[in-house]
Amino acid sequence: MSPRTCLLALLLALAPLAASAQANAAADLPAWDQLTAEQRELLLAPVRERWNRSEPDRRAHMLEHARRWHAMTPEQREHARHGMKRWRNLPPEKRQQARALFEHTRAMPEAERRAMIQRWKAMTPEQRKAWVEAHPPREEEGAR
Question: Concatenated DSSP letters for 44-104?
C-alpha cells in the first residue's frame, strides 16, 4: 500500500472521532451567564463593530430587528431562519422578482395581495420578467 493510500485510510478511520470531539465540545459550552467576560466580548465585538460603522437610520433598523427577533417564539425564529436561508440561495433574477412583487403588493389589502400572488404563480417565466420590467423594484440599499 502506498504512503498516500495509508494516509487516506488513517484519515478516514479518524474522521468519526474528530466529528465526535466537535459535537462534544459544542455540547460542553456553557450558558451565556456562565461565559467569561472575554468570551462574551468575543461574541459581541462583531456586532459592536457593525453598529459603529452603520448610519443612524441603519442603527434604528438593526435595533428594531433585534426587538422583533426577541419577541418571536422559537417556531417563528426557525421559520425566519428557513426564509433567510432560502433568500441567500435565490439567484439574483429571482431576488429581483421577489423584491418587485413584495414592493408592489405590500400596501395592498390582503385579498388583493393573495389574488396578485395567484396571478404571479400562473405567469410564465417570460411574463414574470416582463412584469418586473414594468414594475421594477427600488434599488437595493446596500447589503443588509
Answer: HHHHHHHHHHS-HHHHHHHHHHHHHHHHS-HHHHHHHHHHHHHHHHS-HHHHHHHHHHHHH
Report residue 143's pLDDT band, with 50, 70 and 90 as the boundaries: very low
- Residue partners of 14: CB distance under 8 A and separation at least 6: none
3-state secondary structure of 28: coil
Please tell me the pTM assigned to this model. Answer: 0.56
CA-CA-CA-CA torsion for 50, 51, 55, 56, nearest 10 degrees? 160
Residue of 38, 62, 41 lying closest to 50 (CA atoms): 62
Quick check: 138 and 103 in contact, CB under 8 A?
Answer: yes
What is the torsion angle, in degrees rounded to the nearest 10, for the CA atoms of residue 89, residue 92, residue 94 and residue 97? 140
Q: Using alpha carbons, list the distances in angstroms from residue 43 to 40, 49, 74, 78.
A: 5, 11, 21, 21
pLDDT tens digits, one per residue of 78-96: 999 999 999 999 999 999 9
